[in-house]
Write a structure and sequence with these properties.
outer membrane lipoprotein receptor (LolB), chain A, mainly beta
C-alpha cells in the first residue's frame, strides 16, 4: 500500500514533440540571462530567425554582440578594438537548433534525455562531430516551451542561457543578422 504514495517520476517529453516544436519556432525574440564558465553573469536580448540566423545583444556595460548568419558565428567584443572573431557555425552545437530542419531523433544526435524538476533536458551533439561539444536544451511542458540551453564546448566549458518570455509573430529585420552592418555601426 505504501508504494502507491510514492511520487511517480515524469517521463521526458517525446523527441518527436520537441522536434516539431523547434521546427515551428521560425522567428522570435526574448531576453536572456547567461552564466559563463568562469562564473560571471550577463544579460541581454536574443533574436532568432530560423534557419541559420541568431543575434545575441549583451546589455551594457558589456556592449558585445554575437551574430550567426549564413554559416558563420561572428563575435563583436565590446571591450576590444580588434576585428570580430569568426567561427564556422557547423563547428558549434548551435548548428543543431538553427538547422533548416530539426530532428532530434536522428541517430546518435541525442546523447542524454531526462526529466528534472518538471523540465525535459535533452543533450544533443553533432553525430558526425561529437568533439565539437554539446547543447543541452531545456523544455517546459504544457504548453511545450524552450526555457534555455547549456552549451558545452570542445574544451568542456559550460555556458548556461536562460530565456525569458518569447515575443513571436513579428518580422525580424535582416539588419539584425548582418555582421557587415554591425561592423559599420561600430566604426561610427
Amino acid at each position: 500500500m505504501s508504494l502507491l504514495a510514492l511520487p511517480v517520476a515524469a517521463a521526458p517529453l517525446p523527441l518527436a514533440t520537441l522536434s516539431a516544436y523547434l521546427n515551428g519556432l521560425t522567428q522570435f525574440e526574448t531576453s536572456f540571462q547567461q552564466q559563463n564558465a568562469d562564473g560571471s553573469q550577463s544579460t541581454g536580448h536574443i533574436y532568432i530567425h530560423r534557419p541559420g540566423r541568431m543575434r545575441l545583444e549583451y546589455d551594457p556595460p558589456e556592449k558585445s554582440v554575437v551574430i550567426v548568419a549564413g554559416s558563420q558565428v561572428v563575435i563583436f567584443d565590446g571591450k576590444s578594438n580588434e576585428p570580430p572573431e569568426q567561427y564556422p557555425l557547423g563547428r558549434t552545437p548551435l548548428n543543431l537548433i538553427l538547422a533548416p530542419q530539426i530532428d532530434l531523433g536522428t541517430a546518435k544526435m541525442v546523447v542524454g534525455e531526462a526529466e528534472v524538476k518538471g523540465l525535459t533536458h535533452v543533450v544533443a551533439q553533432d553525430p558526425k562531430h561529437p568533439d565539437y561539444g554539446t547543447i543541452e536544451l531545456v523544455f517546459a511542458p504544457s504548453p511545450v516551451r524552450l526555457t534555455g540551453w547549456i552549451l558545452t564546448d570542445d574544451a568542456g566549458n559550460r555556458t548556461v542561457i536562460r530565456l525569458g518570455d518569447f515575443v513571436t509573430g513579428q518580422s525580424l529585420s535582416e539588419v539584425l543578422f548582418s555582421p557587415q552592418i554591425e561592423a559599420a555601426r561600430r566604426k561610427r
